[in-house]
């Protein structure tokens, strides 16, 4: 197949960028409810039209690539539905309200951001999953931050920074395993080598959150009193509800797959809701003609699949404890499917390869090689909409270049993960960016400026490459 000219390959991307900019201008925070999906589909259509009419690429090639890509993210979609179940059940069962109730009384506003970052880093390191971390402890921490009067944007940045540090450094992480295996690097060699860029980045991140925390604390007592009173009057606040996260932690420690862990945790939370919060379930069911047992079953079903709203007497608290269930994830799933279509046709048409070949030509020195790898990883996160595709394609494209210039495979594996894994959450239409925005209820572009670990990580990679610290060529 003849590769498109690089300038031609840029046309679908420019169309996508132009349409996304228009959508964001017109719809603002509602752009992910349909406008962005249309922009991605239009970009897909432009790519297919050019490829089929000018370069005679058969439709079958696009169809096969789309089928494969969507098949590869099928588990991701199941995880999203499980996250929807979990977010609703953890809230209504009293797990998150209990964590908020005690958390606002224990955690200091001044040290909250740095503490949230460290807590999420530890949980993610042990679980190997940033998604699980954000969907569980991250949601609770966001609730605590609202009660303490701390910016949700800052808090989301701290949560995501910690979660992606742990995900990146955990031997249980799928992205860490993928980056090491696709480059032929031993897993623990890969992790140890990442420490030279990741640890300094994390320390800088913690320092920023530590300093920023000193601006928090004004009016805290009023917020805490409002939230604790509202939660105590609405929910049955009990330490027994914390059995759910404890049992979830056990599942995580046993290395149970994420989708099974999330689903099992949602079921455990549902059982806890039946025991501890039957009055809430009856309110959610909103039926008088049904028996009490059937009302509980209906309320639990709605908790799992639909939107729930409970009146606590506080408007701010009402917004905090409202959930969307599985249905709340449908916009995200829709967006992922559209993003996967765009990424698939860009790969199948050869447009991605055409652009990256031009970039690789400039990779003649150590710094230029690393910097073009970083640029390619970021470019692929933006254009393909998925971190796994970005990791695989980046490693494949640069494997020979690193080998020919005599660099160890661990430099490629580290560079690939330093950019592909951590920047994925900064792209609104990437699977990671969409998911974390949906789970936390904070738009990607709102929390982006405060994800210091994710922003600094590729910059640190470039700095280390520039000074050549611990970068050696293989001896002949």
Category by helix and strand content? mainly alpha
- Computed over alpha carbons, the radius of gyration is 23 Å
Low-confidence stretches: none
Q: What is the overall silhouette?
A: globular
Total number of strands:
0
The overall pLDDT, averaged over residues, is 87
Largest sheet: none
Strand content: under 5%
Q: Report the helical percentage.
A: over 70%
Q: Quickly count the helices.
A: 24
H/E series, N to C? HHHHHHHHHHHHHHHHHHHHHHHH
Q: Kindly report how far apart the N and C termini lie.
A: 37 Å
Short description:
The protein is built from 24 helices and no strands. It is an all-alpha fold.
Walk me through the structure.
The protein is mainly alpha-helical and about 475 residues long. It has a domain at about 75-330. The protein is about 75% helix and about 0% strand. It has 24 helices and no strands. It has helices at about 5-25, 35-55, 60-70, 75-90, 95-105, 110-125, 130-145, 150-170, 175-180, 185-210, 220-235, 245-255, 260-275, 280-285, 290-305, 315-320, 330-350, 350-360, 365-385, 385-405, 410-425, 430-440, 445, 450-465. α1 packs across α18 and α5 (about 95-105) packs antiparallel against α11 (about 220-235). The chain starts with 5 loop residues before the first helix and ends in a 9-residue tail after the last helix. The mean pLDDT is about 85.
Give me some keywords for this one:
476 residues, mainly alpha, 24 helices, 75% helix, globular
Topology (elements, then pairings):
Blueprint: H1 6-27, H2 35-54, H3 59-72, H4 74-92, H5 95-106, H6 112-127, H7 130-147, H8 152-169, H9 174-182, H10 187-212, H11 220-234, H12 243-253, H13 258-276, H14 278-285, H15 292-305, H16 315-321, H17 330-348, H18 351-360, H19 366-384, H20 387-404, H21 409-423, H22 431-440, H23 444-447, H24 452-467
Helix pairs in contact: 1-2, 1-18, 2-17, 3-17, 4-7, 4-13, 4-15, 5-7, 5-11, 6-7, 6-8, 6-10, 7-8, 7-22, 8-10, 9-20, 9-21, 10-21, 10-24, 12-13, 14-15, 17-22, 18-19, 19-20, 19-21, 19-24, 20-21, 21-24
